Amino acid sequence: MSKIITRMGDGSAVEMTDSELMEDLVKGGEDAAERGRIPMLNKEELQYLFDVFKSPYKFVSVEPGNEVIMTYDGAPIKMTRADVHMSRIQALQIYEKMFGADTLELGHIDYSYKQIKPIVGFEQPLVEQTLMVTTAPLIYGAMPNLGLYSQPDGPFPNPSELMPMGKIKEAQESYEAAVEDAVKDIVFVGGEMYESGVDGLILDTVGAAGDADVMASAIATRMLKDKYPDICIEFGMAGEFTLGMHGEMSYEGIRLAGQYAHEQVKVAELAGASLFGSVVNTNTSMSTPWNLARAIVFTKACTDVANIPVHANMGMGVGALTVNDFVPVDVISRCSKAMVELCKLDGL
Amino acid sequence: MGMAISHAMASGMGGMRAAGDLVARVQMSKGMKINEAKAYVADKIGVAVSELTDPIIMSEVREDLKIGTLHPVGSRSVKFMEAKKNMAKVLDLEINCVNKLMS
Q1: A232 in helix, strand or coil?
Q2: Do B15 and A102 count as a contact with CB atoms less than 8 A apart?
Q3: Do the domain assignments include residue A97?
């Protein structure tokens, strides 16, 4: 019997037999189904995944007709990270003309709305000049990053220090104050960028600091949509599960803590988001088949109920992709194909 | 960049090589899901949905409609803001930078 060569979640190569492959697919899928109380993959879907991993080819793709839209996060920053130094405008021209990008995303290296606020006047000319030399839709991206609002980086007492001391009320009040400030920063920067002509905004890594982070993003999204009804806002999550760091925050009557993607998307819709970026985290100790089946169960439950387009996050460490800087193409192409075709995604 | 290129090759619409940017615009401005957005664009530019990812057909269509091509060769090739202005008309949608920077 031929061996199947694939990867573990940390990127290391692993050999599996047919039965080991199917066992991992079933167990990964069941893990998501149990956690999210959502449907497991059916027999045909498991067989599809089995065939994707059995393919002897290094690179696989979706069938013609199943292609979807690509959105990005921190696109020009990826150039800088690779030590390729050029202007951000040139980076986006390369994405548009050489990488086959459907959309462009401009972001500052200090990728948080709070950090952009004092330099927004320096970012706006760059936005305007980029618009003059590109054709694809331009999105401005940054993170809500509520972590920057607590001491020592921000003005409010640090909830992570208060909670171990039993000061739960004080920690919650700190989060509530941070939400107020973050909303002001996101709305200010977002409004300025829209006035400069961008087609949309990305709130990237929503929920990184838990439910309060989601709260700030939802309120800011609603305020921006009320002011600019035509603005496109992508609500891109940080993780598969919203941590209850505050624990009692609700948006429009929906408790934010403890949500998985199929519940998070409903908050994004209520807030007026145009696109939703779902996330499923990769477990480095488990195989790619296990991680992919798990990611598909979570993501399919999300696309089944979503009324807005869903662009699944599939970068390093999410969407079953391995947790390293140089994700192997055998993993990217298999996960890309399977996520798009089984989850009926609108984009990545 | 390996990540961006691999996804674009495995699952992307090809951006300006084909109709990826057009479908993206419709999805972003009208909130349409992927199949609805593809059908909308195909109808507006007069091609079949299956032709939206064909770079040969789409370069001719883009040139005819003056909505920008990957290689804008020639002294009066339509590109950038002018292409986006035409795109807004062809796709019947508002493009923020056209409204803000060309009004």
Answers
A1: strand
A2: yes
A3: yes
Q: What residue of A is the nearest CA neighbor of B13?
A: A67
Q: Side-chain half-sphere of B31: how many Cα atoms within 13 Å?
A: 14
Alpha-helical regions (H) of chain A: 18-36, 43-54, 75-81, 88-98, 113-116, 120-132, 159-162, 168-195, 211-227, 261-271, 288-305, 329-343
Beta-carbon count within 10 A of A44 CB: 9
The CATH number linked to A265 is 3.20.20
Q: What angle do CA A320, A326, A329 make, to 5 degrees?
A: 65
Q: Would you call A318 helix, strand, or coil by DSSP?
A: strand
**Distance (Å, whole) CA B79 – CA A135:** 7
pLDDT digits (tens, 9 = 90+) for B14-45: 999 999 999 999 999 999 999 999 999 999 99
Chain A residue closest in CA terms to B49: A65
Q: What are A137's two structure tokens? A: 């839709």
Spell out which residues of chain B touch residue A314, defining contact as CB-CB under 8 Å. Answer: 7
State whether A340 and B11 contact (CB < 8 Å): yes
Placement of tokens 């609002």 in the chain: A149
DSSP bridge pairs for A8: A287
On whether residue A348 sits in a domain, the answer given is: no
Give how many domains chain A has, as a whole number.
1
Whole-angstrom distance, CA of residue A319 vs CA of residue B87: 33
Cβ-based neighbours of A324, under 8 Å, separated by 6 or more:
A10, A11, A316
Kindly tell me the sign of the dihedral angle through the C-alpha atoms of B25, A71, A223, A215: positive
Boundaries of domain holding B48: 2-101
Tally Cβ neighbours within 10 Å of residue B83: 23
Domain with A17, as residue range(s), is 4-343
- Cβ neighbours of A31 (radius 10 Å): 19
Q: Does ipTM exceed 0.90?
A: yes
Question: Residue A4, SS3?
Answer: strand
pLDDT tens per residue, range A126-178? 999 999 999 999 999 999 999 999 999 999 999 999 999 999 999 999 999 99
Name residue A281's amino acid: N
Residue A259 lies in a domain: yes
Nearest Cα to B13, choosing from B45, B50, B46, B66? B50
In chain A, the residue whose alpha carbon lies closest to the alpha carbon of B48 is A65
Six token digits for residue B85: 């202005």
